[in-house]
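Loading example: each entry is read as three labelled lines plus one structure line.
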Amino acid sequence: MTLNADNEVPPIVAMRGITISFPGVLALSDVDFFLRPGEVHSLMGENGAGKSTLIKALTGVYAIDSGSIDVTGTSRVFRGTSDAEAAGISTVYQEINLCSNLSVGENVMLGHEPRKGGRIDWKAVHRMAAAHLESLGISVDTRSLLSNHSIAIQQLVAISRAMVLDAKVLVLDEPTSSLDRGEVEQLFTVIRDLRDKGAAILFVSHFLDQVYEISDRITVLRNGKLVGEYLVKDLPREDLVNKMIGRVLDDLEAIASTAAREINRDETPILRVTDVGRRGVLEPADLAVFDGEIVGIAGLLGSGRTELVRLLYGADRADSGNIEVGGTAVKMTSPRQAIDHRIAFSSEDRRAEGIVSDLTVAENIVLGLQARKGFRKIRRAKQESVVSEYMAALDVRPADPNMIAGNLSGGNQQKVLIARWLATAPELLILDEPTRGIDVGTKAELQKKVAELSEKGLSVIFISSELEEVLRLAQRVVVMRDRRCIGELDSQGLELEGLIDFIANQGTGSAA
Amino acid sequence: MKHRLFWPVVALVSLILINTIARSQFASITVRDDRLYGALIDILRQSAPLMLVSLGMTIVIATRGIDLSVGAVMAVSGAVALTIIDDATDPNSLGTVMVAVGAAILVSLVLGVWNGFLVSALGIQPIIATLVLMLAGRGVALLITEGFITTVNSTPFSFISTGYVLLLPVAFFIWVAAVAVVGLIERRTALGVLTEAVGINPEASRLAGVRSTGIIWTAYAASAVLAGIAGVIYASNIRAADANAAGQFIELYAILAVVLGGTSLMGGKFSIAGTVVGVLIIQTLESTILFLGVPSAQSPVFFAIVVVVVVIIQSPNLHRVLRNTFRTTRSAGPGEPTSDAGAAG
Amino acid sequence: MTNVETVGSKLQSEGGYFQVFSSRHSSLLPTLAALAILIMLFIGAEIFLRGDFISPGNISALLLDNAYLVILAVGMTFVIVTAGIDLSVGSVMAFTGIWLAKLLEAGTSPALAIPAIIVGGALIGLLIGVLVQFFDVQPFIASLAGLFLARGLAFVVSLSSIKVETASVLWLQSTRIRLGDWYITPTGILALLVVFAGAYVMQYTRFGRTTYAVGGNQQAALMGLKVPRTTVAVYVISGVCGGLAGLVLTAYSGAGYPRNGVGTELDVIAAVVIGGTVLTGGRGYVLGSLVGVFVYGTIKSIISFMGAEQSWMQIVIGALLLLFIVVQRAIVARSNRRT
């Protein structure tokens, strides 16, 4: 837990003892964080680590409960984003926060347009914008509409705007999510340029390779606490991965491992996809799932696990590839089709994509069945029996089917969601991060349930950031990194360290 | 236990009480010539058009949409019915009237399907999609009546809005039947729950396999059919087809009724009973205003105040400000903590 | 330092002038389309009505008869560009118009009465703006409340029409400044002044540019722009325009009439949309709305020339509106897909 504070270069931003809590959640606990000029600093951590909360504290979106923020030596309190901006902290958001209906030049200068005699001097606007873009090495027709340009260019325009605002600190939030290799190179050139000119750059990204390519320093958060701050050259990949997700104390070893179960892979797979991908989202990938098998997908946040299963389910449309269900080629263009093929998908964002919050628990559980049945209502007796069966099987608490689903705890909402899908008697169940944000006891129950069901013949695709879970349940593990499948492992005999090493190093030439 | 209908019912009862105190004749009901008479009966009768339109508006709003064309549909419906009766050989025959009413409702259905097409198939914003019909509809109605206010003398037709059966107005039975039918369809079939799901969380519903296109289309079709029936009642009442006056501003009052009844404009859970109470509140308010001697043309001022008060009370911003004044929590909304967990994997 | 990307010059060398033009001004295209439609209407009318249509008198009358609509359209443009909508303008126009008539009848000097009604319009706009910005009310509901309020107030002022006899006000309409066979009235001049003022503000002031930003970016506040005051201001502007339109209409008809302007807001919205302003916000030009009003007025003229029923007016406008909306949606969808 050592803090490497460089004594030669005073930090431009010093956050000390930052604590932020929300009702029921301690998001950040006594975290220190420093940004130094002339450095690219990456903030790393999985979901729930507090990364996003810390960034929002820095950019003025959240107020802090305790601790202090100093910018160039002066103590600051940010009451809003404009305060942070006024302090010289500029953010380029993942969703490009510019006006696509306006010209490039106008976007760069918006709010600060030079005026002559009370009216905007457009010639000067475009001249100055061009100059700013030039200094980043970009030459664009500043009078053209922003929407005519690729995301990569738009991002550079956003960075340019930050320079207009004389930013000393540039926060780049997932800047490379929509860029291809060439555009990433272009962006990195610009970043290095700005760094050499003295800017402090906070680079937030899930792409491990890129973090190592561009950063000088890394800070790791875990469960709301600071794990440490390290120079990149002193932190090999597997150490980083370990610090982010490493060993979690668990008493779940009591659950018999299903990893060792024999799977018959000679029959036609329940689902087979080849070359399935989507431009800018997922490189073409192959996957096959057999009867009664649990396939785990492991990788860090942003590696493309959810993107892959969404394509399998028809939630998103694939640009390429073939999908076969039970040996027959199908087109998977909507969730309806997947459901008709007896595939079920439990989304990782249970609030936005899973639970219909104002409906009751019972209505939520029955929703999948009802949607399939159409307008004729499922008979009350059947409804009640389905609801009570699954509420008991998954131990939903409180055991009140008429409770409004939105009032349940996260863990119980997850159970309701899984109940919904189990009620449709699927042949393949895709579970995306089903145990996130759930207490240990419930985690164990869910995993036990999944194991039982697969024993009865249900095939499962199981995504989890908790690698122990994946190793315990899955017979086979597909590993993903940076939007690509990088390999498949047989889980029998596979240890946690080996899996971590594979995630970190496979394909980079630095394998242990 | 605070039931959702609590405040609307309290408001309605208070209004009735105030009226009864102010004019003792208000609550009295007398029987004469096989009919019940009284201010309350009048309210039940006169609220028919608004009740029908508001019913349809409730369903549409539940899908996160809006239907601004209902007034225009009323005008078209009245025009169709009256033109058929006017052109018929025997305007007084029951058969003619039935054909006329049937045609009017059929035309309304077509208009509703058109709206549904624009919204669910072409994906046009509901406000804009129904604005087109709101504009063009009255023109169509005027064309059908060839620019005149067609009048007819048809006893069966007038009976619809002015007749009485079993002591009570026919119009009252019509809207009660409509409420019953819509209520049954929404609650006895799965349509109600699925509509609510689509309105509350369109993405979760899509992932759960709900066919939202059909649901949205049905909502607009239903809204137009109900507006069509309302148009027939209105035309029957004035015994004419007045393309400009029919249903003027009714969409605004319908939206107000829905909001008063507790259904949120954001879509999702809806309450038919709430809308019924909302319409009765508006009708009683109108009656109160008239009794106070305020010319009915000036009554919109009162309704403006009601709208402003209701939306301010329902404003999420207000709730947030109030919550923050009494608790020292941060400015982030309650959903923020889990946004960490919401990033794509 | 490496030269990373050169986009603009690539376009210029490959695609030529048109490519550059459309990449810079694609939002002008709908307005140019409207202009083309206007010209086609003129030509068509001229041919079919046998040369009677295009005359200095008729075209001058076009501005004269629709001056109130022009003024309302300017205010509406501001509102729609921010992705809002104002359904109250017709009623505000009626309210301010009848109030003016009443004040004049009571002997108030126009120098006091006219500013008073403009303030009245502005206040209603302020109410709407505050509801939208600070209470999260949808613009359509908030302006609905404004519509109710203004319409009711119009009848509170007077239940029937009030004639205007004040010479200075009537002068606004009756005076014709001639230039050969062309003429213009002070009301027409006022309308044009409002148009040019509006166009200037939208193109040459930071406030104007912020309205485009607000319409084009839901999170414009994160860009450091002053969103709240801009949002409220556009509704106040619309209210002011409502007041000016009330003045113009009262001068035009010589009387205030509380039933004026029923449904006018729809005509204004249609004109603004036809003129190239997108209902989803972020794109549009005040001058385009002027063209839109002329299209509207020309259609009305043609219809009455042809002796057809006025009901066709509403149908044609409705159909045109639909056409423009569908095309706008297609254009916006395409530019979104590109990013």
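Chain C touches chain A through 41 residues (CB under 8 Å).
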